[in-house]
Write a structure and sequence with these properties.
The complex is a heterotrimer of chains A (294), B (113) and C (134). Chain A has 294 residues and is mainly α. Helix content of chain A is 69%, strand content 0%. Chain B has one domain. In chain B, 73% of the residues lie in helices and 0% in strands. The chains are: A mainly alpha (294), B mainly alpha (113), C mainly alpha (134). At the A-B interface, α7 of A face α3 of B.
Amino acid sequence: MLFGIFSLMTAALFMDLDAVDVAFTEAAVGAGVTTVLMLSCLHLTGRWEHQPSHNPLLPLIVVTVTGAALIYGTLDAPSLGDPGAPVHQHVAPRYIQQGPAEVGMPNMVTAVLASYRGYDTFGETFVIFTAGIAVLMLLGIREGPESVPGHTTVGAQQIILRVVVKLLIPLILLYGLYVQFHGDFGAGGGFQAGVIFATAFVLYDLAFGEGDTQRVVPASWLPRLGALGVLVYGGVGLASLLAGKPFLDYSALANDPVAGQHLGVLIVELGVGITVFSIILAIFYALSGRRHGA
Amino acid sequence: MSLVLDLLSGLFLLLGGFLSITGGVGLIRLPDFFSRVHASGLNETLATPLLLIGLMLQMDWSLDLLKVLFIIALVLATSPTAAHAMAKAALHGGLRPRAADDTGRPEDDPSKA
Amino acid sequence: MIELTGLFNYWIVVFLMMAGFYVVIARDNLVKKLVGLALFQSSVFLLYISMGKVADGNAPIYEPGITAYSNPLPHVLILTAIVVGVATTAVGLALVVRIQEAYGTVEEGEIHRQDVADDDAERPAPTTEGDAEA
């Protein structure tokens, strides 16, 4: 619970530091998804911790020494907001000045993420997919008695919750689509959109139970959708290879290089969004479907 | 005209701030879970739209104004629902509201003999 | 002294980092350790984002007429790092759930005791001194 609040405050801090895309992602992911996942895990493992068995003095000493060493190390670091800092010198001015013109979109973060640093993003999408596969291998998605459609535990009396959730979910989905496809002009992009989309279904699951949610998005689709997202991303790279340019060079996708870049970024973000959505939903199904002693 | 707008927006911002603070005080100081949910839910549901209206009065007519209006509608819809869901979950978990005479500890609860 | 006030973001980052580190090494409960790791992760994000900030800069979305932008490169790295972080935290939580089912507890001391007891039960007891090193 406190961790959710902490994430929300970190998101506010990011806004103050001009990092709108990051604040967006942190708010959606940290305050939303992580809180739900932790609560699901705590439900299964018990709410209270036992007394720690060893003396906290040694860790405290280690922590204090390490902290002092780190602060000593930062005494030479550039001040906050210094425009002459090394981080602003080499590639960043090029991204800022030529990014919008070369890639054709005002949002520099999306331009760098999907085009200039497209390889890294491909790897990260793959990491998300692998994490989802790992969770599925560890936990699996069960079809238990509560997965029978229509079976509800406490939902029967939750009229207010159900009505409000029913009103909100189309708005959330619409917003997710907006963030996905508007990510090149404003804050947004594939990662945030995937998380928002998954949040809509998580909300549905929390209000209506797993049976109904699994009727809407069956559990068997999710690993395949995850793989599909990664394949879309790799497919774009492969298409560039087949056109004679390096892997993931989007200017090969259309006659005009800038239009090609824009098209490539859109398709790649779509792949990322699909993967993030399906993996987060799969993880949620796996954690929340686990029953005690299963 | 702009002076009136400034005064009004200042008034709304002050009211919203005051309600937020009282909601926070209620969250910490009230004795029972249900009264705390009541306090924070009510206060914050009114405080956030008041603060946002105070901000809206400072903005020109633009798309941003419409977006803030949508945010107000969203907060008005979701905040009471969240408070309701919390109270409902607590009731389901077995917590009972504290009457005037008992101490609130489960072992002193007169309904559980 | 004047340069030191510009460094306070690093101090905040180090404080959060050490708080997370302390939770990981000082607490036995595995879920708490995961929360400490996530706290550590957040402090690293703050470090990168605060390094990318340019004084009087704007958000890195191009608008005509604005010339000072904050550096978009750290934002890109942290954006993906956040989502990857939640995926790895989820793997950690799944592991904790399985550990709970296998050992019946998520306290590190208990788990270690059960492992040692299992190892002792598997190893046959030495009968004479000559066999003790087997």
